[in-house]
Amino acid sequence: MLADNSPVQRGKGGVEWTRESRSVGGTLVRVRFPPADPEMSNGLRDISAAELVRRIQEGDPAADAELVGRFSEGLSFLLRRWTRDRTIAEDLFQETFRLALEKIRKGEVRDPERLAGFLRSLAKNLSIEHYRRGSRREVREEELEAAAELTTPETGQLGSLLRQEKAALVRQVLGELGSERDRQVLFRFYIAEEDKEQIRSDLGLTGPEFNLVLFRARRRYRDLYERHAARGEE
Amino acid sequence: MDHRRIEEMNIPDLYVTGRLTTEDEEAFESHLLACRECREQVAWADDFGVAMRGVAVEEAARTAARAGLLVWLARRGPAVRMAMTAALLALAALPAWLVAERSSLQEELTRARAAAARPAPPAPQPSPVPQSPDPAMQAKLNQLQQEASRLAAELGREREIHASLGEQIDALKQPQANTYTASLGVVRGSDDLGEVLLGSRPEFILLSVGLPDDTIRPYRATIQDAGGRTVWQGSDLTPTPRATLDILVHSDLLKPGEYRMSLEVTEKGRTVPAGEIGFLARREG
Predict the structure, then answer these.
(1) How far apart are CA B28 and CA B6, in angstroms?
(2) pTM: predicted TM-score of the whole model, two decimal places
(3) Cβ atoms within 10 A of the Cβ of A78, count?
(4) In Å, how far is A26's CA from the nearest CA of chain B?
(5) pLDDT (tens digit, 9 = 90+) per residue, A179-198?
(6) Contact A184 B14 (CB under 8 A)
(7) Which pLDDT tens digit goes with each residue over A202-215?
(8) ipTM value of the model?
(9) Please, what sign has the CA dihedral across residues A37, A42, A48, A54?
(10) What does the longest C-alpha to C-alpha distance in chain A come to?
(11) How far apart are CA A81 and CA B47, in angstroms?
(12) Cβ contacts (< 8 Å) between A183 and chain B: which residues?
């Protein structure tokens, strides 16, 4: 969450930031990235990662915007997955881009072609550091709450209805599976969390056959879900 | 990481269930940063996995509700609720697996019934003895049974020997009275044979060997039978003050026949003969 009432400073490449005192002490710099401006980075869509790094180092504002535009959705997705907390994910999102730009400008990217890997490592380390800083008790509770959210992402009556709906869809998928063997594969893979090779070997499946079962189940689930959603919209 | 490999290996499913190696996970996450299609796949795989577990939790919750567990859970904190949810998930996996197992067995049963319903090919000769489906296994089984019988018989024999030895030891522990003493004299150059009488029952016999001189020194004595086979040998045998070597032997050691006992002493580091005596062991009466 950004401290909207704090003075906004404008930097190179259209990057804005605010400073905010933390309740636990210290100062947190929050960088606000403008949404990727299609016009600004228009000519940079197809440039390689190494070229993008080079341009950022040269101080090209369009390259800064292209970096954000290219990776913001993915980074946000990963951070939400890792933290299971939207607010923390937002904070880390800002911090990752701020640090990434800083390091790129300082020439600290060892392999510019692997820019995505660099960004991912940076975000991962920041996530780990975030949880390391918190007290063990807080982290434990957050993890438990996060796990609760993963299992039951919605609460209340609506949540209960949505869960029932999902469960019904999964039951339908299971019912439509070709054989009992396919059902076994899914139960053992998703619920019992057994080793993939063990399941495959026990059921006498080849690797491609095993993958096909999972792929088919997921595709049927998706089709059913989308059909269901379409009916709801009508 | 290319899309072909991602599809072929079902990487999104492996990723959401934490089955990727650290290296592959890093590579896939780096790929996810720039690939919307794979992010969607991961989101669907996540959703499917959660829904699968939801089904399992529902089944477990039904069971738990019967036991009034949910009422108790509702009063607990989030940590306890989560711990119980995890436990319920584990419980849920069991009936789910059992259902899957049962179905699998039913399939096998159906196949077996179908196979049984098919007319069997005519058998060449019905065998009166039921044959094992695997002759090699049957042969091995027979071999093991024979070995077990042999070992059982051997054990029986060993037990008998053990019992007999026990009786003998018990008898030996009893006080020995009137032990038979056979006096044998060492006479150099004499061919006269002393005599040792063997009783009808096993017993100890004291062989009292008269020494040629009364010098107190250790002797080595060797008894050999007529064939030259050593039946007993003793070293560091100290003579009695009466200049005899008293050797207590058991009658089992001596069979009827001729024997020769040779005595040796060590002088100046060398072993030298000190005398020899022949004796005849014979049954009494």
Answers:
(1) 9
(2) 0.49
(3) 26
(4) 31
(5) 777 888 888 888 878 888 88
(6) no
(7) 888 888 888 888 88
(8) 0.72
(9) negative
(10) 65
(11) 12
(12) 100, 103
